[in-house]
Protein 1
Amino acid sequence: MNYIILIFQSTHRTLLAEKVLLGHGIKFDIIPTPKEITSDCGMAIRINPSLTNKGMVISILNDSKIDFNLYEKWMQ
Amino acid sequence: MKVYLDNSATSWPKPPAVLDAMSTYINEYGASPGRSGHGFAVRAAREVFETRELIASLFNVESSERVIFSANATHAINIALKGLLKKGDHVIITHMEHNSVRRPLKYLKSIGLIDVTIADCCEKGYVDIDKLTSCFRENTKLVVTIHGSNVSGAVMPIDRIGQICKAKGVLYMVDAAQTAGFIPIDMQNDSIDILVFTGHKKLYGPPGIGGLCIRNGIHIDTLIHGGTGSRSELDVHPDFYPDRLEAGTPNTLGILGLKAGIQYIIAKGIDSIRERLGQQTAFLINALKGIDEITLYGPGTSENRLPLVSMNVKKISPSQLALTLDSEYGIMTRAGLHCSPLAHQTLSTLPQGTVRFSLGCFTTDKEIDYTINALKRIITS
């Protein structure tokens, strides 16, 4: 499946994003950052696009002023 | 009977939840936070994140990522002073500062980097605001004051000093080693730019953990460069917080103990802890002030003060009194200069210092009574 991968500057910001997204009832996983994407931070947020609307996630993070980079990656 | 009255050095005992949190981490998921994405590392990282959020909420810090962990208050003060001050800067401190502030500034002055002015304080330990205001120069970059004196117990008017610094466009750093967790601190309302705390005193965490909180917009250069778990492919240290000031594996064990300590005081109520300790301190002071042989230092019982009593007994040196209290009565106090010779200059208690009785939230009324009776016996014997 093609997942959405969100990468943040620091572990702190990844967990801040986790807190904010959980507060909005968004479903996601925390995964080790895929090294072919970046080595910015050890952990990343993975979202299943068939369960969660990508636009909604982007808008929640933007509203919370949390900077991120978004990638799409095929994962089993 | 063992009576521990050295809580201003390190509070003891700790709430049971502190040890529980620390042993759970060691036994169940003791991994490095933020260095991997596996379950243990994520759980540890979440705990560290939540502790930063808790501290940010406790002191009203604008951004929780600007809560930086250090080994203790001294370490945090060194990070701030040495990472902030540049050649030609002028710094104002007070005559009640601890060596943790005085010594790094003296060092920076000795290498020709900065100049320092020390503002006078009254005999109780309060800074003279007019004198402090007259110390400002064109090149004044920073004012540093202790919040609560570890020697006299006086509590400085940090909101007033913060306003003065803000009006003059000068940074204000508060050393809250003795007050964090005891007196409410609001970084934004009190106009504090940098707040230094330690975990092992009135936040009831273990020794070895402290930190600093930095207002948005202020940048501090790091003293230590190294691994942060972020931007690992680059050979330069990251410039974002908290990674900027936290190279190397953090003290997760201490951070978790600190979190449990803070949760304990919040659940118990910081105001109710302060009220009870205020009553116990007032009881101790009132019992001692009627004794001719005893000289008490610091503010009176009606003033905003810390739960400590600094005193001397005529014809008995502080070290001898502390030894007698410990060896004959099991009462543990601290004698001497309390790492604050400047403060003793203010109180006129150099070179011998004082004996300090400092209370904690587990101190009982019975222990206070026992201590008063022990002092009376020592004086009459």
Protein 2
Amino acid sequence: MELILEGIVEAFRLLFGGDADVYQIMLRSLWVSGLALLVASLIGLPLGVTLGLSEFRGRHLTVATVNAGMGVPPVVVGLLVSLLLSRNGMFGFLRLLYTNWAMVVAQVLIALPLVTGLSLAAVQQLDPGFRLQIVALGAGRLQAFWLLLKEIWVTLLAAVMAAFGGIISEVGAVMMVGGNIRGQTQVLTTGVVEETRAGRFPTAIALSIILLLLVFAASLAMTIVQQRGRRHA
Amino acid sequence: MRQAGSTTGHSRWSAAAAALIVVALTLVMVLAAGCGSEADEGGGEAASGGQVKADQLILATTTSVKDSGLMDDLVLPAFNEAQPQIEVKLIAVGSGEAMAMGERGEADVLVVHSPAAEEEFMAQDYGTLRLPVARNYFAIVGPADDPAGVGGTDSATAAMKAIADSESLFVSRGDDSGTNTKELGLWEAAGVEPSGDSYIETGQGMGETLRITNEKQGYTLTDLGTYLSMKDDLDLVVLTKESDDLANYYSVIIVNQNLHPTVNAAGAEQFADLLVSRQIQDALADYGRAEFGQPLFAPNASALGR
């Protein structure tokens, strides 16, 4: 108990005393996960919505693939990316292993099925009569699409936030492809692992508190938007 | 149609606003973090992890060496000063995994502590040069009341035998690290095949293993550095003396470029040179004294360079 209290006190000293290392690690985490989320959303949201709306041969297989992708353990993605990016790997010539870019790649691969799958589910949850109804009311193609988006945007946002929570808290993949290099690729989660391993609990607790705050902030933002969306809808 | 448009007008605005907020937030987050870390890291290498530097050197080392802070605090700053064009990527893994990386040419230079495995590594031509760097001692730690009577033994093998005979709990790293290899060697020397309920393998680093040992009040073999940095939070005491059979030797190995052309042998050589230089060897003798009251390593380079 004493250890935890001591750790928390030290954690706040690090947090509010402006410890450069701790801030750097936090910013790196945000940068990597933020960029990965942006890329995954730009691809995943349109993909999920389109998949949800369209009919084509092999659609079932595609949907099944996306859903299976949502269940792939991040650590497996980490292994795959590290093998592909390693010097003797297919993309070894890019020299990307143990860089922030490698972590972005891994996190995009983790987040993409989540964003795609959840937005696909959002579209499919819609009453099938809804589309018919708006078309029947005389809405054009674009207009129908816009109305549909309006109906599900809160769920889409939830998909994005879920993916953010998933990747910023993930440790196995970023450890493998980033290497947890101090001053280069150490992020919040790998920092917690290293500091714990080395017995430096105060720093581990400080990093954990930041991680908690970030995830809470994301879900708080989500809740606020959701409530507002409900009131206005 | 007009009617439909007007009733949805309000929520259309709020939807657009929310979408804007999301995009803006993400952008701000990305930009802020990008600029921030750029400023922090002193120039452009934030995102790429340093594509500014021409040369990349992958150093695979043991967790105990990284966790002691020796590399990050002492060696890497000195290396960066001597060879600013080379960017070192320090990857902390167990000695076994470090050598496996060397075998595959995924690392350029290794700092490891597993002499028997190192000799095997060199014999198979995976490395071109192996130099002694530092030395310290492993310690067997356990509960203060010492139910196995380890404190009364006069050698490490006798200590291990005492632990086995009393069926006291022993917590093993079980991760093919240098410490784990040393432990298995000691069991073999003691003629004991560790197994059963009183032997558990954590598969984790020294810090976690010490904590598990502490919770279960068992015995474990540890490097001194990790133990000292956690000592205040552990109800475990050192039960062995600094005897030869607990000596812990660290070496630097240059990975064979002939097997893997991508290996940065020149950089590896410069790094190995620095490790055995008088500058680093002298600093090594003092490293940890301020924090722990005793140095964590003793210099062990056989032929001191410049």
